[in-house]
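TL;DR need structure tokens for one chain.
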Amino acid sequence: MSIGKSMGVGPAGTAGANTTLVESGQGNHRVADILIASGTSLVTTPDTAALGQGILVYTFPPGTIIINKIYGDIGLEINDATNVGDTPEVALGGTQTSGAVATIGASAATDEDLWGPHVVTGCDTGAAPTDAIQQMNGTAGLNIIILAAAAHTVYLNCADNWANGAGTADVTVQNGRFIIDFTLVPNEGT
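>> reply
TL;DR here they are.
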């Protein structure tokens, strides 16, 4: 669900499935507040094997994007007590992680090019989940620039070498929130 409107310079971005988006700003400066619904499936883990998967959480509006800052807060829950000790990586990237990978970057560098990767200290099975939190100004303190012709998608990705469980297990997002502070340089004519 998107809650946003044009703010004088170009259109607003769009929310992914199972996310709520509140986008605000003035002129070219924007802040996208992305809430991922608790219980949203992120990974269906294999039994004693590596796997990475991701979900689309946001698409930037058209134009060149200059990411100033990203704040993330994410908890994970798994429905198999055997896997509670797993410490998966989470990251935001312009592409979706996939395949038999234990780390997100092993799928593609662009799977973790916006925020992270961060190691979640454990997948909870019912109590308050453990969060991975970071505030950053781009890679190595530099702003991230997404050119107008490049993909504008933002995926929440997760990967791990999953423990021996009782078959497959579902890893779900708990308390997922990302705030992306960015500057929009609109395409000519928008």
